Structure formats: structure tokens, C-alpha cells
Amino acid sequence: MQITTIQLPDLFNQLGLPNSDLAIARFVKEHQPLPQDVPLPEADFWTEAQRQFLREGWHQDSDWCVAIDKLDALLRH
């Protein structure tokens, strides 16, 4: 059995965003720091479709959770 971990580039691709290391670093730099009182899916820079995907990923405890949590942590630094 092979377990595949979803990485940040996969998440960015799923969100329809450029997913190179440089593009991810630019996105994080542009949007950080995300205030502690703003849940990641509620940030004002997402489209409604992106928000819905992030909400569902968290609420359903999907395979995307680790990557979503990592992005959340990066944006809060």
C-alpha cells in the first residue's frame, strides 16, 4: 500500500493558483500575516470556489487537511 501525501504545490494547483515554489513563496509573502481571528477560508483574497474547497477540506478531514494546515501556518507567521 502506497500512501501519498498532498503537498502545497498540489493544493495550489487544486485552488487554480500558480504552484511553483517561487509562486507559493510570493503568495505567502503577499498575504501574510493572516490575522489570528480570521479563519483561513474566510480570508478576503479567496474566490468563493476556493473558500468552499478549503472549508470542505477542513470540515471533512480530507486528504487535503495537512496541506491546508501548512498553508494556514505559513500565512500566520
- As a percent range, the share of strand residues is under 5%
List unreliable stretches of 5+ residues.
none
Q: Return Rg in Å.
A: 12 Å
Assign the structural class, choosing from mainly alpha, mainly beta, alpha/beta, alpha+beta, or little secondary structure.
mainly alpha
Task: Specify the CATH architecture.
Answer: Orthogonal Bundle
Q: How many H/I helical runs?
A: 4
| Helix percentage | 40-55%
The biggest beta sheet reads: none
CATH superfamily: Uncharacterised protein PF10982, DUF2789
Q: What is the level 1 CATH name?
A: Mainly Alpha
The total domain count is: 1
What does the overall shape look like?
A: globular
The H/E string reads: HHHH
Detailed description of the structure:
This protein is an all-alpha fold. The chain has one domain (about 20-75): Orthogonal Bundle (Arc Repressor Mutant, subunit A), CATH 1.10.10. It is built from 4 helices and no strands. The chain has helices at about 10-15, 20-30, 50-60, 65-75. The longest helix has 12 residues, at about 50-60. The radius of gyration is 12 Å and the shape is globular. The protein starts with 7 loop residues before the first helix and ends with a helix. The mean pLDDT is about 95.
